[in-house]
Amino acid sequence: MSVQELEKIFQSKIEQEIKIEPKDWMPDAYRKTLIRQISQHAHSEIVGMLPEGNWISRAPSLKRKAILLAKVQDEAGHGLYLYSATETLGTTREQTINDLHNGKAKYSSIFNYPTITWADIGAIGWLVDGAAILNQVMLCRTSYGPYARAMVRICKEESFHQRQGFDILLVLSKGTPEQKAMCQDAINRWWWPSLMMFGPHDSESTHSEQSTQWKIKRMSNDELRQKFVDMIAEQIKVLNMTLPDPKLKWNEQTGHYDFGEIDWTEFWNVVKGNGPCNKQRLEARRKAWQDGAWVREAASVYAEKRKARQQKEKQIA
Amino acid sequence: MHKTKNQMNIQITRYYYGDIPEDKGGGGSQKITITPAVSEAGDWPLWEVFIRSKQGIDHKHVGSLHAADAQMAIENARDVYTRRMEGVSIWVVESKYIHASNPDEAASLYEPANDKVYRHPTFYDLPDELTHM
User: Fold this and answer.
1) β-bridge partners, A249
2) Which candidate, A202, A208, A204, places its Cα nearest to that of A226?
3) What gap in Å lies between CA A274 and CA A267, rounded to an integer?
4) Which of A32, A94, B51, B124 has the most CB atoms around its CB within 10 Å?
5) Which chain B residues contact residue A302 at CB under 8 A?
6) Given CA atoms A273, A275, A280, A281 in this order, what sign does their dihedral have?
7) How far is residue A223's CA from residue B121's CA, in Å, rounded to a whole number?
8) Tell me, what's the pLDDT at A159?
9) Rg (chain B; Cα; Å)
10) Which residues 23-62 of B have a C-beta within 8 angstroms of A?
11) What residues in A contact B13, CB-CB < 8 Å?
12) A38, A85 in Cβ contact below 8 A?
């Protein structure tokens, strides 16, 4: 069969909402796009553990510590689901991790911002996970089977993350004047970077059109961002806090909130590696990989030893 | 190292702890060495994981992971796929032992079932007064 015929069959499957599975024929560009996107998503889960991990030892109570530990462990799990999905496309785990460590692969820029107060953990759960969930709910219906299945699993676990974040802020919002100020300060710092998580405007987005045609993406960056603003602008009322945008205003005509323009210079600056913590995050990942070398080696040697012992026992028996 | 911020005359403290932005003196231009992730001694193979969610239900494929051996694969599968009591039993099998049918041959492979509609109960047009069947 010619490539044109194969492409036709492929596109007709996409249109009929038939999922593409690992062994099915797919255009090289579709495969490459997925490898880029899913691995980037996986790296985001793993790098995302760093800003939160910063507060595990400093959480204000044992309860909060246990919850944060469970959340960070979930993020590791999410990273693994996604690395596995990437591997089904014929790339190796080593290659994927190397691409992160040598700076070739990107991860979500949001994790290049520091977590400098406890309220930041609340703001991350509520705003950052909240933004991620909108994207991930959409991806549950993405056209590549293993990616969609990983997303379903992740979404099931993610709503706990958002709720625990809101819960942290809710407690602070009812606390002492200092706690209230801390809550507002965290919201002020995380609001704009959270809006940036949806990526450039549709008109500027390089991969969007093809990804939409392949049904990898099913909603545009701006659509998702608007949905997020509408959701958060209502939820913040429960906290009695404000969002740091003087242009934020309900628009009767559109049935949506209007909001101010994102500082795109900051956005591209962080994407290009000049955010507050870009270097630190990558260094932490490289260090974790290096420091873990003996563990990987020990596990392999132990597995060998166990195998040899079992064989010996079999021979005796 | 800390920074105080004035906000409506309320002092709050931002602690930079380990999470220090570079412009505050953290990070910086230390030399970094990259250890490439290469196949190390006894590179961990890939395992497919199957979970039985409760007694009476089939084991179902849930995903895959890397592990040095079967026991480690089961322990990792517990941590990755059953953190919320999703399972009562775990199967793992090294991915290389899974043999799959070729989707390109699906048409001919499943062809024998195509013309046997009489295998389905709906094939039989029976009188309406016939009940419990």
Assistant:
1) A258
2) A202
3) 10
4) B51
5) 68
6) negative
7) 47
8) 86
9) 29
10) 23, 26-28, 30, 32-44, 46, 62
11) 117
12) yes
Phi, psi of B61 (to 5 degrees): -65, 130
CA nearest A273: which of A106, A43, A46? A106
Q: How would DSSP label each residue in chain B?
A: -EEEEEETTEEEEEE-TT---GGGTSS-S-----------TT-PPEEEEEEE-STTS-EEEEEEEE-SSHHHHHHHHHHHH-TTS--SEEEEEEGGG-----GGGHHHHTGGGTT-GGGSGGG----TT----
- B66, A93: Cβ pair inside 8 Å? yes
pLDDT 10s digits, A137-164: 999 999 999 999 999 999 999 989 999 9
Helices (H), chain A: 3-15, 28-47, 49-53, 62-87, 93-101, 118-123, 129-139, 145-173, 177-196, 208-213, 221-239, 264-269, 278-291, 293-316
The residue type of A147 is Y
Is residue A25 classed exposed, middle or buried when 0-12, 13-18 and 19+ CB atoms within 10 A define those classes? middle
> What is the helix (H) or strand (E) element at residue A258, kind and residue range?
strand A256-258
B28/A301 CB distance under 8 A: no
* B53 token code pair: 């969610």
Nearest to A179 by CA among A244, A117, A245, A115: A117
Q: Which of B16, B19, B38 sits opposite A51 (nearest CB)?
A: B19
Predicted structure pTM score: 0.88
With beta carbons under 8 A apart, name residues in chain B contacting A116: 14-17, 19
Element (H or E) spanning A257, and its range?
strand A256-258
Tens digits of per-residue pLDDT, A300-314? 999 999 999 999 999
- State the smallest CA–CA distance between residue A223 and chain B in angstroms: 31
